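Regression check, magnesium ion case 252:
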Amino acid sequence: MKKPLLLLLLAGAISAASAQPRIIAHRGHWRTAGSAQNSLASFVKADSLGVYGSEMDVWLTADGKLIVNHDRIYRGIDMERSTARTIRSIVLPNGERIPTLDEYLRTVRAHPGTRLVLELKSLADPKREDEAAAKIVRKIRRYGLEERTDYIAFSINACLAFRKEAPEARVWYLEGDLAPHRIAPLGFAGIDYSQEILHAHPEWVDEAHAQGLEVNVWTVDTEEEMRYFIAQGVDFITTNEPELLRRILAEE
Ligand code: MG
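Current build output:
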């Protein structure tokens, strides 16, 4: 039997309104055996979970190389003031060395099912951020990952540098100090704000959507907070607990 057109339209509208947020593994899937934050294994393990995306952090070293790590100072070594060679001597808890961006991107290329969410950490000065953004975008293109990579940063200068270097790419701002109507004119894909910011401004989810922006929230690790942000209608949830979020989404 043919369904009346109106019913089909209604069903479409309801399913669009209730679309579930997609999962982004924060620093990869690292709370699992054999993994470590920002390691190559963390991307492989995120990919094997079948999540939408996997996030990681990039620094520009003193000698102009790109490496993947979160903390500015890790095991006593400063990521911006040390050479890549020194930084590469650091062994991660899973036995890997701190990856170069090249190593990491080769791993991403070999696992085409998962999107890369690449964060450029805030650097010592805007010129270094511009240099890093240009180098990163060149590498992303060299590895053929431009369709699979989102760029995120706390620095508005870094976000604008990514917009300039890769006008086609999706760029997200992390700092949380700008309302969606201030973000939309910058050409970013959306807001990527902390759960604290979105608790303080719950109206920003609808405001972002009205501006044609999407909403990503971080770092949501408890069942209670996951259910709250699913109900809020965010588009992406970034979490250290991707398996828990997957289970909760299956129940919703
Ligand atoms: Mg990060």
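Comparison notes: The radius of gyration is 19 Å. Residues 126-142 form the longest helix (17 residues). No diff flagged against the previous build.
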